[in-house]
Amino acid sequence: MASITEYDGRSSAFTPAAVVVEQVPITLTTSLTQYAIPSGPYMVPTSWRRTHLSTLVNKIISTTSDPSSTGSIPFDFICDSSLLRTTLGEYLESSGLTSETTLNLEYVRSTLPPTRLATYEHDDWVSSVDCSYNLSASNIYTTSSYDGSVRLFSPSKPEEAVYTFSTINKATVQAAKNVSLTQAKWTLDSNAIVTGGMDGRVQLWNISENVDHGTWSSSKKWHGEAHNGPVCAIDVAQGPFGASVLSGGWDGILAIWDDLPSSSPSSSADNVIEAESEHEDHDDDDVEQEDEIASKRRKTTNGRPSKVSSCSKRAPASSSKTGSLDPTMILYHATPASHSVTGSKNVLHPSSRITSLLFETTFSSSDENGGKNPNSAWSAGYNGILKGWDLSSGGSYSRGSTHTL
């Protein structure tokens, strides 16, 4: 058994103890291969703390590897799934152990506690926080608030918002609906933000920065209404032609919105894109592929026809006008039923409320979809059920599990 004499904290070397001190055997292991040392066991004083153990590990590393390869590295030590924050003797006493017990310590790189950079007060409750995915420049953080505003923050200037825009619209105000925002999420290309609110609206906003002037601007591309209650969750994936948006509401409804650049939004809720004749000429193959993708999702789901955006004439994204967009697909996290008293049909119980949803994460080497699969989604709700959805087959309920509440 290796014996390590007591460390004198006033010097940088190990010196023999002047008096006999109580010692305890320890083993030292790590998952960090570059900092691995012989596991021991080592005999160390019970008066040692994390800093003494860290010095010991660094001392052994310097003798077993190239001394010039690294400097002194602070380590934390885990014993029985807990970080060591006392002396070894105090830990033994609190755990009801004796100094004859061998302590198995795992060491990891120590990290400093987070430092608060700034505080920004909003005018109302903050309902969500998200970060842009643009890795080529400084990431921009966004918040949504119950005052109906979206605010953008830059890490280089965190004490104030670099840009603020309101999502409140006249229709919501005139209808005396709640203008509070519940969600604001960046699209994966970081060129737009999708918002959801207490009024049940899902909206997509184009976001752009004038780097030369240091200013920002926003414009609403489309809004959609598929929920009979507040929107409580949103996720975004990258489809073949644009953003695919998944929204969930208090009404238990999941809505899928496909932002197809070559389709102009329509204000009609009942229009459906008609399949184009196979004999009709197209300028390119993208339109045909787009029709194929849209048609895969235009299927009846859960007894209710899916709705899709429509247009009488196809136009490029740059000519799309701000307007209403119909959902590509509507799904139910829980099956609607008739009200036991009023007899009303398609009534959802309060336990059907959706609490969380997401597009399934992919682990392929390709980044074209931003690491998310726009054809596979999951939803969870108050009813204790987790559901998986295959969106490519018309939203069939593919898999899931029930959680006991």
From TrEMBL:
Sequence ranges of the WD repeats: 174-208
Domain NLE, residue spans: 24-92
Keyword Nucleus assigned: yes
GO CC terms, sorted: nucleolus
Record-linked InterPro entries: ASTRA_WD_repeat, NLE, WD40/YVTN_repeat-like_dom_sf, WD40_repeat_CS, WD40_repeat_dom_sf, WD40_rpt
Acidic residues composition-biased segments: 273-292
Name of the protein in question: Related to YTM1-microtubule-interacting protein
Species in which this protein is naturally found: Melanopsichium pennsylvanicum 4
Taxon lineage: Eukaryota, Fungi, Dikarya, Basidiomycota, Ustilaginomycotina
